[in-house]
Amino acid sequence: MERTQIPMPLQTQILIRLALAVCSLIAGNVCLVFFTVTIAVPFFLLALLTAVSGWHLYRVAVRGRYLVLTGTVLNVERTTVLRRPKAILMEVEGKALRVVLRSRHKAPSEGSQISFYVQDSTPIYEWRGIHLLGSYLAAAAGTSGTPT
Questions:
Q1: Nearest Cα residue to 71 out of 100, 92, 89, 88
Q2: pLDDT digits (tens, 9 = 90+) for 75-134
């Protein structure tokens, strides 16, 4: 599979993780020059961790070991104090699916289409009579992806 065949949300996540690895590596080198090794080691570990995470996501995307779950948003759950989006309830192929969101500052509106890219080995749990998806690789609002 060529790099151009990797979906754009997955490409974005791969680039974010690799950019974070490079920035952390630069910060580690700066700390190594101006301070001690003890201060630089956490930056080098973060660089290693994010580079491995980006490489893993790249391998998942290249091998096609991901699924695209596309559905309509039925409800957006928000946190009590700051009213940030916590989870969404969506309808996928006639079934209710609750997805716990991460790092979402802008909530999808009710009735809009949203796609979640999940690894094919990601478990979907039963929770209070509905399906629960706890983790995903990337999310894209307003798209209609095709399952791979």
A1: 92
A2: 988 888 888 888 889 998 888 899 888 876 677 888 889 999 999 898 888 878 889 988
Model pTM score? 0.83
**List of E strands, the chain:** 66-78, 85-92, 95-100, 113-119, 124-127, 130-133, 138-141
DSSP-derived 3-state class of residue 85: strand
CA distances for 64 relative to 42, 49, 61, 102, 120, angstroms: 33, 23, 5, 23, 9
Rounded to 10°, the helix 37-63/8-34 angle is: 160
Report the distance separating Cα 130 and Cα 36, nearest Å. Answer: 52
Four-residue CA torsion sign, 110, 57, 122, 79: negative
What are the angstrom distances between the C-alpha of 130 and each of 6, 111, 121? 31, 19, 19
Tokens at 107, concatenated: 């909530």
Q: How many CA atoms lie within 13 A of 90 on its CB side?
A: 24
Q: Would you call 133 helix, strand, or coil by DSSP?
A: strand
